[in-house]
Amino acid sequence: MKILALTLMVFVILSPSFAAPTKVADTAVGAACDAKQLQPCLAAITGGGQPSSDCCAKLKEQQPCLCGFAKNPAFAQYIGSPNSRKVLSACGVPYPSC
Predict the structure, then answer these.
(1) What is the pLDDT of residue 11?
(2) By mean pLDDT, which of 34-43, 54-63, 74-83 is the weakest?
């Protein structure tokens, strides 16, 4: 029973990161917003480690989309976390003011 509960908790916690990509056309920039592109940042945001260069590149690419992600309940917990602020700062990306 404990294994089932643990498995369910892990699934609930990780399911937003494996969900279908959230794509929204960003008319101001002409790029597509895709939360799945931020997958390289997940470990740094959830674990508090240093972001990889791939993470920083993806954050800069998806920067115009961060407010949209922050408003999405599936991603808001990640964008609004203290570790997220640290990762954004380490990558030189300003925290979004939505």
Answers:
(1) 35
(2) 74-83
- Give the largest Cα separation in the chain, rounded: 50
Q: Angle at the Cα of 41 (from 38 to 43), degrees rounded to 5? A: 135
pTM for the structure as a whole: 0.66
Other CB atoms within 10 A of residue 53 CB: 9
Q: How far apart are CA 3 and CA 7, in angstroms?
A: 6
Q: Is the pLDDT of residue 64 over 90?
A: yes
| Residues contacting residue 83 through CB under 8 Å, at least 6 positions apart | 44, 45, 46, 47, 48
State the DSSP H helix or E strand holding residue 84, giving kind and residue range, or none if neither: helix 82-91
Helix (H, G, I), strand (E, B) or coil at 94: coil
